[in-house]
Amino acid sequence: MNANEIINLKNACANISENIRTIFPALNLHFLITTPDKKQDAVSSVLGKLNGHPASNEAFQVLRAWASSNAEGTSFLGLSEGQENIAFSFKTRPRTLAFISVDVSLYKELYHAIQAIHFQMSIFLETYANHLKKPMNINGNVFFHRTTPLAACRLNLKSDIYSILQLLREGQYDAPIMLAQQRSLDTLTPQVNFAPEEYAFPIALDVIKYTIEKQISSTVTTRSPAPLLAQYQLAGQIADCFDNDNLQSWAQFSHSCQTMAWSGFTPSQILGAAINTSTNPFVKAIGHMLAELTNLSSTEESHLPAGYNPFLAEEINKIRHDRACEETFEMIMYHVMEAESHLPLLRVANNQNEALLKGKISGWCANALHAAAKAYMGAKDRGIPPLQAARLEFLSAHSQSNWALLMQVGQYIVDMRRQDTPAQINDLLKWVSQQPDSRHMSDSINITISDPHYTGSFDASSQVQQPMTNIPLKKVDQNKFLSDMEYAAKRPNREQPQAMNLKPAEAEGFSFESDD
User: Fold this and answer.
1) What single DSSP character describes residue 195?
2) What's the number of domains the chain is made of?
3) Interstrand relation of 75-85 and 140-142 (parallel, antiparallel or unpaired)
4) CA–CA gap between residue 194 and residue 251 (Å, rounded)
5) How far is 469 from 416, CA to CA, in rounded Å?
6) Are residues 298 and 410 in the same domain?
7) Torsions phi, psi of 84, nearest 5?
8) Measured between alpha carbons, how far is 358 from 261 in angstroms, rounded to an integer?
9) Of 43, 67, 387, 502, which has the fewest Cβ atoms less than 10 A away?
10) Residue 500 lies in a domain
11) pLDDT tens track for 280-319
12) In this structure, is residue 370 part of a structural domain?
């Protein structure tokens, strides 16, 4: 924001503070409008206005903690309350201070800063309303306390609605659709240190439009301070139109979207998965709504990339996973036969273990590939058919795989990346080793780390916010895996790979991408 916009922002905050003082004479609301490198200056400026206030010492504690922290963004810092002696009486009355910090470095436009302030104003009003129900009779500080994710989702919905009502009051008539679009895009793209699951504003858009158009046009447009509380109460009433099941459905939908986004799926592919593969009508409805809000077309089911799809039933994901493992092995065996080497098995296994760091779990069979490579080498040394030995060992090792563990691994990887602390392969090994029934996976990761051909080239942190193309694991690039084996040629009397006995009934109706 430029200098004029910052001046306008300060004026807007001053008006809000004046309105609060008019409604609550014993309450003073202060805004700390600054940048992260000038926190101390902002604190000094505010403290200079608090001399003689009965809660000045408590306020100093709050502001000092904020100034010394690395916290950024616009946020409600808390309430500081002191007891003022009433003249000619032994009684006291409470006097309260409230603080909201505004980080102007985060906003390119004044509009977004104002919207963030209104959002925090709702949190402040919520905290103050709860405080008035249980007032203190001594000096102290009151902070906003987060409870459950569901409660956070409801409060954030109420705060989003309140901010929109205030923006409409200021003449920003496109505010509802703009916020709905932003929350939708946040849900469909990878987010760091932000939980779209807790911001369900898009599902409330139609109710807000109806309420504004049919019920409260006069309340929205008036500029007296009284509607500030009326709009806060109205925001709560609108938020209460959505029960816990509605909010839980949104949270599950958004969580699935984030899982897919961090695994490399595009927004259109995520919408396609939600609309075309989910059996939940509410999820489908949300998918259609977000597609309309974002003006994105959903990818048809037949064109969705292979990979874990949280919108599908888990038994279907398991069938697709097993099918991908079988097809991966069949593809590699042709390369093994052509190269007369176990190296293709090792290379694909290593790549699969690296792919775990991207959240790619469907089709993972690195433990079975490593076991097959070991069996191939042993059989070749003993002069027995190595391909058959590798096949039998693969089937045996794959039967020990744990789909539930793979899903936990995928969630762990996504959670770490969403916290901006992406796991490296050694972190993954440590975490996996602590899980029950994980010996097969930890052994495989250990082999990858110890393999002299393993380079560990994937750096999760370098791609933490970039969606990645989701390539089915069954695809094997011959140039990539066999570049050092191009001299190998087909020879007569070579042992031919035997086709695996796939059960077509298990995978009926499912299709997988091919290189064609």
Assistant:
1) -
2) 3
3) antiparallel
4) 13
5) 20
6) no
7) -100, 130
8) 11
9) 502
10) no
11) 999 999 999 999 999 999 999 999 999 999 999 999 999 9
12) yes
